[in-house]
Design brief:
The protein is about 40% helix and about 0% strand. It contains two helices and no strands.
Length: about 100
């Protein structure tokens, strides 16, 4: 049984227990509804437990090797000018007694 069948049994049992007002000889519909709700609840719990125990991916032992992919280099468009490298100016430290951190 799956989740939908379990919920169906719970709903059917609830209908028989709470909504049907028929009295029969030899069989009580209310008792049958309670039994169906108990069976549906147990099946729902069992289904949820079994769903969490099984593996989520199939493993068959094969190794997948990726093929190398060749990518065409991008060519600049006509009229493109390469940007110039700007010189970086680093100011000297103004603080007296500053020590560079030592590497281990």
């Amino acid at each position: 049984m799956r989740i939908s069948a379990s919920i169906f049994l719970i709903a059917l049992g609830a209908i028989l227990t709470f909504a049907v007002h028929v009295h029969t000889n030899g069989f009580s519909l209310h008792t049958g509804g309670i039994i169906l709700m108990i069976i549906g609840g147990g099946a729902l719990i069992l289904t949820l437990v079994l769903m969490n125990r099984r593996p989520r991916t199939a493993v068959d032992g094969r190794t997948v090797q990726q093929q190398p992919v060749y990518v065409e280099p991008v060519r600049p468009q006509a009229g493109y000018v390469e940007p110039r490298q700007q010189p970086v100016y680093v100011e000297p430290r103004q603080q007296a007694g500053y020590d560079e951190p030592r590497l281990p």
